[in-house]
Amino acid sequence: MSIQFRCSNPRRAQVLSTVAVAINGIDFLEVLDHDAPPGAPPQRTLLVHMIKDTPWGLGTANVRIEGGARVTQIKVEWAVRAADAAQSDVDAGRMTAAERAFYNGLGDANRVLVVRVDQDGDFSAYKLRLVRSTTDARPPVGFDAILSEVEFSFKVECPTEFDCAPDESCPPVETDEPVIDYLARDYSSLRRLLLDRLAVVMPDWQERNAADLGIALVELLAYTGDYLSYYQDAVATEAYLDTARRRVSLRRHARLLDYPMHDGCNARAWVQVQVDVVELTLPKGTPLLTRVSGLPPMVRPNSSQLTRARMARPVVFETMETVRLFQAHNELSFYTWGDERCCLPAGATRATLRGDYSATLAAGDVLVFVEKRSPRTGYRADADLERRHVVRLTRVTADSDPLGGQFEQPPTADPVAVTEIEWVAQDALPFILDLSEVQAPADDLEPGEPERQLASVALGNMVLADHGETLAPETLPAVVDPTRYRPALERGGITHTASADMTQPATQALRQFPQKALPAVTLLSTSGTWTPVRDLLNTDRFQTEFVAESDSDERVYLRFGDGRTGRLPLVNESFAAIYRIGGGEAGNVGAGALAHAVTTVDGITAISNPLPAAGGVTPESLEEVRQYAPQAFRTQERAVTEADYAEVAERHPEIQRAVATRRWTGSWYTMFLTVDRKGGLSVDAQFEAELRRYLERFRLSGQDLEIDGPRFVSLDIAFIVCVEPNYFASNVKAALMEVFSSGVLPDRTRGFFHPDNFTVGQPVYLSQVVATAMAVPGVRWIDTEAGKGKPTRFQRWGEPARDELAKGQIDIGRLEIARLDNDPSRPENGKLEFIMEGGL
Prior knowledge:
single chain, alpha+beta, Immunoglobulin-like, 13 helices, 46 strands
């Protein structure tokens, strides 16, 4: 098999073969390699096929071989017509008898010129040309000038993986590139660039009038180029976390890094609603307004008073639950069982109310304890506004005091009905609440009020409200192309709120996590209700969920699913958006700021929030996302090792320190977690269940978890204290006992042995004890030397000393916590003794 090399103009060869013109030319050329007859050297015999019969006299002098890269100057040994190959050629040694027979036997032997060269060429292209003579390069007489030459290769039958057909495409004409300023990207520079180019290609056009059509087209192209340049820059800018400028882009980049960027969160407040009817129900979603001068507590919807209030731009809250209100709960008095100087201690979780409220007060209700009048002056204005605390009741029990009437003025023999209330430990009273009766000044008494009043009271009718105003339903544009449906809400600054648990402790109800807050938007359509989610990655194709994305201009765009992650809206489907606006730190209003309710319910006499609103957070800034998102993955989100469990547990807001121990329990490994709760609270069943729920998403599958409290190590400490000459020893000792107590001091600092000052594994250092004692006024020195007959002790209670005084510390195990309550009734909880010498 041989490859045919044809001339570069096959159309001309076809025409030449069909017309009656006495002009000949080369049709194609073959290089004999594997198909060469016996005796013929491979790749050195060329068969030149003519379009017409090869003329007589065409021989060696009329053939030239040109080209080559490495092998050049190839000479033609002989050339003869295939039909004219004779015995004389065989006798002369130019060819073998087999070759002669092969050439003579060709089907078109009269049209074939056999050419033998002295050597085979390389892999480059060669050209065979027919010339008149060795000195005249013109085509032979009677040959076409175009078809008198042909390109070929000697290596056509060498193995190759490419197509042997030559590429006959004509390369484009190379022209000089125009000089273009590629830095021109805005309107003015692009306009100048276009005019400069036109001055080169159209030098006769000199018009520069703005009304000229050419100038108008130039400016139109410059405008389009400016827009496209901005689009390219914007796309490139938004493609990276470090350069993105839009909140939507940064949110999606951060989500890829598993960082939940937040758009802020609204504030919450506990609001008291006082009524003058026996009972009424306040519905969920009732608007509450901050104080507007001259307006009553209750404002009717669509009234002139509401229009006036709107002009003052008040902050709007809305109730988060439906609540029953009772006139008897406007103000509840504490019952002190006849004690005139009574108080609720810090850490209290129970109290007694005067009156029987068992029919209207129940577990789950919320009360706020407030100091109504100053215990010293009796004035309302002097009351400490910080002595206010909210609690959620866990038990309400009716009772009576058979001697209660004896403390009335005048005394009676009638019993007094009381109600015992209890609340959760998380709502424990953080301060001392004075319950004593005070003499109210005459100029600070309302008509009909008694002169003797309790300094502190409890407020009922509490309802949780959050910042945000619900707007009227907004109709969104109809769906035309579901895949590109991205409607924008008319109002910006929508509310972001987290779900509320109405059973959690009241003090935790105001604590929110912005990362879990969702936009307060709901969509209604013919296909049902659509709810917002943070993203659609975990949404299936049937769920009616969407994402509300806030941009830098506070506009909110709604993004729907694509039919795989989230349901795709239907063509012509209509939506109505119901959403709230308002949020951020603007909702953190002070105590007493809320004063009006917009409702049709009659009977409301006063609105107030005894405690400041809290939880309002502004949207996370773009720079914060750039700083925090790349580091988000460093936060451990799984617990495998002991250190993992301890670190994850310490993220819980109620845990001060945790220690984990992995033990083999017979069939598998169990992780034992020892936790130190803040405030020295015990690890009860309720807290253990809550902590288990918190740790469940971190826990390693197949690994059991056991939670317990630490082992408390009671201390036994005794020192000799030398008192300064001008101080009473008893006063100095009382001061020492107070400083080394386990409670909170009157100045709200912690005592030395307060539970939060020590944690698991923390030793007790003698130097710290001495330094604290020496700081007490009146202490001259502390004797810490142990000796025969000396009462000095610094050791574990109930155990022999282990040279703790010599070492200067009491060692505490990794699962132990030092404790010293110095309670004479419970010496097993630690004992502290100071032997005073000197002084007065």
